[in-house]
Amino acid sequence: MVHTVAWCDTCNILCGLQDTRFTVWYYPNTVYVDRDILPKTLSERDASEFSKNPHIMSFVGNQVTIRRADGSLVHISISPYPAILHEYVGSSKWEDAVRLCRFVKEQTMWACLAAMAIANRDMITAEIAYAAIGEFSFVNRKPKREEHLSEEAVKVIASLPDLTFMHAKVLMFPATLTPSTSSQGQVD
Asked: Comparing C-alpha atoms, which of 53, 57, 32, 28 is closest to residue 43?
């Protein structure tokens, strides 16, 4: 159970204290894009040092201020790179975002970039980011048939190569993107 949360003042990053864990969700919108990579887009650390009933006072830039039960303030620094990634994506600087992730070499950054790319329908960047986090099934999968597609649309989409199919699927139905459990690449 989360006791206290705070949003970053400069970008879409959320931090919270839950039980004995301090958690930072670097791209919370991942839950709407691809829930499978959500655990890869967050950072957790032990929060037992804050004693019982800590409260997040502020989240400014990459600095989080926590008030412990005894009234003392504790300052925590988080990685500055996710905020820079948010800035690049917000400006549609996809090449710079990929370059940043290659420089940082953290799975968390690549997972955030993958989710951001899908949310912004940049399939080339999404493919690079998913490959970097080892989600090769993203590139090769053929998602299940949607109930509201016509039979003709299903046939046309099913005849496309895997990558083209995935691009068309994400552009048409970004909220329904889920990995297929079928490895044969068949449309149900």
From this structure: 28
Number of domains in the chain: 2
d(CA 64, CA 142): 42
Q: Angle at CA 8, nearest 5°, toward 5 and 105?
A: 105
User: Does one domain contain both 102 and 163?
Assistant: yes
Host domain of residue 30: 2-77
Has this prediction a pTM greater than 0.85?
A: no
* Same domain, residue pair 97 and 159: yes
β-sheet bridge partners, residue 17: 4, 22
Q: 23 near 16, Cβ under 8 Å? A: yes
pLDDT in tens, 25-70: 999 999 998 888 999 999 999 888 887 888 999 999 999 999 988 8
Residues 109 and 31: their CA atoms lie apart, in Å, by 16
Q: Of 51, 40, 62, 35, which is closest to residue 3 (Cα–Cα)?
A: 51
